[in-house]
Each structure stands twice: as structure tokens, then as C-alpha cells.
Backbone:
């Protein structure tokens, strides 16, 4: 396994910057973090439950090797 160049602290800053650019009212989201061999994965889920019951959620995946990120929006 390769040694990770991007630590969790750096990945958190990257994910926060991406999330703030993409999502309004980020304070309304709960964050959980998962680590895999190659990525830091930041899962955000809206705390408000709309009438249809489908909470807005998204994730930001930060590559440990180069710090590049992927953004996935869901509902």
C-alpha cells in the first residue's frame, strides 16, 4: 500500500472548501468521515427531513495520493 500524502486534517480542509462552494446552509448538515485505502470520504446529510422524507445528502471524496476531490450530490 502506498503511503498517504494527504492526511485527515488536510482532507477535511479540502472537503470543506468543496462543500461550501456547492451547498448553501452547510450548517444544516451532519458530517461523518470514512477512510478507505485510497480516499477520505466525507458524508454530509441534511438534518431537516422534508415532507417527502428524502433528506438531501452529498459526499466529497478526497484522494489520499494527490488531494483531488470528487463531489457526489444525492437526494
Residues:
Amino acid at each position: 500500500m502506498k503511503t498517504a500524502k494527504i492526511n485527515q486534517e488536510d482532507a477535511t480542509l479540502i472537503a470543506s472548501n468543496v462543500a461550501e462552494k456547492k451547498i448553501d446552509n452547510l450548517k444544516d448538515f451532519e458530517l461523518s468521515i470514512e477512510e478507505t485505502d485510497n480516499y477520505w470520504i466525507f458524508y454530509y446529510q441534511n438534518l431537516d427531513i422534508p415532507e417527502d422524507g428524502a433528506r438531501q445528502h452529498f459526499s466529497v471524496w478526497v484522494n489520499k495520493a494527490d488531494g483531488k476531490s470528487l463531489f457526489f450530490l444525492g437526494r
Q: What stands out?
A: The first helix runs from residue 8 to 22. Helices lie at 8-22. The radius of gyration is 13 Å. Residues 8-74 form one domain.
